[in-house]
Amino acid sequence: MSYQRAERLGYMSLDEEMADTMDEFEEVFYNEDTNLDDFEMVTEGTDTSAAQARKGKDIQGIPWERLNITRQSYRLTRLEQYRNYENIPLSGDAVDKECKQVKKGGNFYDFFYNTRLVKPTILHFQLRNLVWATSKHDVYLISNYSLMHWSSISNNLTEVLDFSGHIAPSEKHAGSLIEGLTQTQISTMAVKHRFVVAGGFQGELVCKCLDKPGISFCARTTYEDNAITNAVEIYDSLSGGLHFMAANNDCGVREYDMEKFQLMNYFRFPWPVNHTSMSPDSKILTVVGDDLTGLLVDSQNGKTVGSIVGHLDYSFASAWHPDCRTFATGNQDKTCRIWDMRNLSSPTAVLKGNMGAVRSIRYSSDGRFLVVAEPADFVHIYNAEGEYKKRQEIDMFGEISGVSLSPDDESLYIGIWDRTYASLLQYNRRRSSVYVDLFT
C-alpha cells in the first residue's frame, strides 16, 4: 500500500486524534450527501433478532420510517456517489465495462442477529481483517485499542487485551521485546487454535495464547519507517508445528514458529506485500501487494513458482480453496478472481463487486462457498460448487471491518464500523429445517 496514504489516512493514535482521522476518512470516501448522519439519525434502539427482522425491523436498527429518505433512495445514492479508492486510475471503470455482476438468487445464509453492543473499528482503510470467529458462538475483533471477545450465547462482550497502555511478554523467548510495547495500533490480526497474532502500524507483532494469562511474545519486525503489518496468518506447517506468517509494507514476509516464536524464514519481494495466504497443504504461498502481478511462492525457499496476471490494480486479499488447487485474489479493481494453479494463463472466474474494492475473502472450510467483502455496504456469498454462478448479496450500510466464517461454516460474522450504527452482524447457515430463534 502507499505508505504516505497510510500515514495520512489510516492512523488513529490518541483518542483526541481519532475523531479527526475518521472525519478525514469519511471526507475522502463519502460524499457528504450520502452520509446517514445528514438525515437526522435516530440513535435509540438496540439489537435486532431474526424474528424482529421478519416483522419488518431493519437488520441494523435504522428507523427509515422516521427519516426523510427511504432505504431504496439512499441505496441508489450510495451506489452513484461512493468513490472507490484506486492506486491505478480508472481500474474500476475498466472492469465495469468488461464484466457483469453475477445475478443474485442464492440463499445460503440467513440473518440471525445484529448486536450494537459490539463496535468494530478500522485502523487503516485498506486493511479489513479485524474480525475472527473461533466457533459459531465466539468472535474476536478489534475495537479501538482493545481486542474484544463476543459470545453470541451469553450476549457478553469482554476485553481480552488492551493495547492502549504498556504490554510486555510474560514468557521468555529469544527476540521478544522484554521491555514490551506501548500504545500499539493494531492494523491486522488472526485468531486460530487458541492463539491470537496481532500486527501493528509500526511493524509490531503481539502473540497471545487465549488459554493463558499475559502475552507470549511481542516484537518489532523492522524499524523502517514503512513498517505497517498488512496481514498475518496462523497455519499448520509442513513439519507439523503451528506457525504464523506476517506480511509487511517493507516488502518482507516473515515466518515464525509458535512454540518458541523464532523467525524461520524471511522472504523479500520487489513491492510492499499486502496479503499472503498459505495453501491447505502448506506448500504454496500466495503473495499479493502493490503490483498488478501476484505471485505463487514455494513456502520452504521463497522461490516463485507461478505468476498471477490479470488484475488492473493492487490486491489486498487472497484465500485458498480446500482442494489445494483453487485460490482467489481480491483487488482494488473491484474484482475477486478465481484461479486454478494448474493453468494460470487466465482466471477461471471474475466476480465483480457493486461499488468498491475487494478487501477481504474467505472460503468455507467445506469448499462450498466463497465470501467476498467490499470496503462498505456489501458482502457477497458465491456458490463455489456451482462455478460461482449463484450469489447471495448481503446489503447493509457502513464500512466493513472484517468477515469471518466459523470453523464449522455454521455462522458468518460481519463487522460494521459506523459512527452511529457500528455493530456485529451474524448470519447462520441455511438448512432445510428452519432455525428456532433464540432471541425474540
UniProtKB/TrEMBL annotation:
Which keywords fit this entry according to its UniProt record? WD repeat
Q: Is the keyword Transmembrane helix in the record?
A: no
List the PROSITE patterns hit by this protein, alphabetically. WD_REPEATS_2, WD_REPEATS_REGION
Task: Name the Gene3D superfamilies on file.
Answer: YVTN repeat-like/Quinoprotein amine dehydrogenase
- A Pfam family in this protein? WD40
Q: Where are the WD repeats?
A: 308-349
User: Which protein is depicted?
Assistant: WD-repeat protein
